[in-house]
Amino acid sequence: MADKLDAFSSEQPLLVYQVGGHKGIQTTGGGSLLIKAALPIEHEFYRSTLANPALVSLRPWVPTYLGTLRLEGHNTAEGFASVEGVSEDEKESLVLENVAHRFRRPNILDVKLGTVLYDEDASPEKKERMQKAAEKSTSRQTGIRLTGFQVFENKSSQPTVVPKSYGYSINPAELPAGIARFFPVCSPVTDTLEQQVGEAAGGGLPGKLLLPILRSIRSSIQHIRDALGTIELRMVGSSLLIIYEGDWERAREGVQWLTDHPEGFESDEESTEEDISDEGSEDHEQSDQPRAGENVPTAAAAEGDEGSDDDGSSAGPPCVVRLIDFAHTRMRPGQGPDTGVLTGLDTLLMLLDGRIASVEEQQP
Question: Which residues of 318-357 are buried (b: 16+ CB within 10 A; e: fewer)?
């Protein structure tokens, strides 16, 4: 990878394809790394994923953390100028992998997890406000809210974006329809996949490509659910990020990759971890070195970004699932797992089971 951090400044390009979370996340010039504000609790959580044995099972399911960057100044025509008017907290940033980078047309869904939407140190007024927000949306009853998503159109090569207002507007009974909108099936218009590419209107993949992707995503979420079921923590405001390839040719290569790697994602990890490490380590000092993940690829990250047009990249999995946003995540030994988050993951698994069954029924 040619993407380097030696030119890091406060004017790095902003994340392009961001469907949820707070705006202002930056990327490196090549887009393979994300730079976001180093909020204290989130920073501590990422550090803990590398050091805390209790989080070993969760480590593969969060974006790879490469350390922090500190903004001391920027180059001007007159030379180096120190930063003024920026607080100490705002000068430090997390450096994370961008899991959306390797996708040509990343279809992205951000799912807010949990039945409790307020932090333990929230004011009484905020607690009351967030309780009402949970009751009015799908969060309180199901443990999830569709924060936002995008699906690429087949002919225009542009994404259709569904904003967060949609997630607030639907009730639990309408969640299956929302999942179907994110995982649409494109009806064949010709006999072969090669002829269909570029000819199909609307968004979506053919069913024979979508089904293995759905099953892979479901398997990943089940692994995440199993991991969180053994960890005593509280996650408030965290999301599950789901990305799958919307480009038919790249999706077909990814599905073939799944067929060729029935053992899982392990064989793809070593090379992708090295790619990320090489990119981030040559030009900045890393405060924490990430470990290789287990069962999932690590170079694919976080809230979604502009897809890659590098046709020379090797084939990899056609989808990725990650937990993101840990500004209010705390370890709570002795208190058991976060049942609200587990409820949300169970809801997602049920919704995916329904979508898989529906797509299977549509197949000839």
Answer: bbbbbbbbbbbbbeeeeeebbebbbbbbebbeebbeebbe
Distance CA 37, CA 91 (A): 8
Q: What is the DSSP string of 182-220?
A: HSPBPPPSSSSHHHHTTT--SB-B-HHHHHHHHHHHHHH
Q: Which residues pair with 146 in a beta bridge?
A: 111
CB 266 within 8 A of CB 354: no
**3 vs 81: CA distance, rounded Å:** 24
Q: Which residue has the tokens 């197949």?
A: 363
Q: Tell me how many degrees the CA angle 170-110-272 measures, rounded to the nearest 5.
A: 160
- Residue 215 structure tokens: 């099953």
* The residue type at 2: A
Comparing CA positions, the residue from 8, 31, 15 lying closest to residue 102 is: 31
- Contact, 63 vs 27, CB < 8 A? no
* Other Cβ atoms within 10 Å of 249 Cβ, number: 14
Distance CA 15, CA 21 (A): 11
Token code pair at residue 328: 């209010």
The tens-digit pLDDT sequence of the chain (364 residues) is 345 444 444 455 444 444 445 555 777 767 788 888 889 999 999 999 999 999 999 999 999 999 998 877 666 666 555 655 556 666 788 999 999 999 999 999 999 999 999 888 899 999 999 999 899 999 999 999 999 999 999 888 889 999 999 999 999 999 999 999 999 998 755 445 554 554 555 789 999 999 999 999 999 999 999 999 999 999 999 999 999 999 999 999 999 999 999 876 544 444 444 444 444 433 333 333 333 333 333 333 344 444 555 544 567 999 999 999 999 999 999 999 999 999 999 999 999 999 999 999 999 8
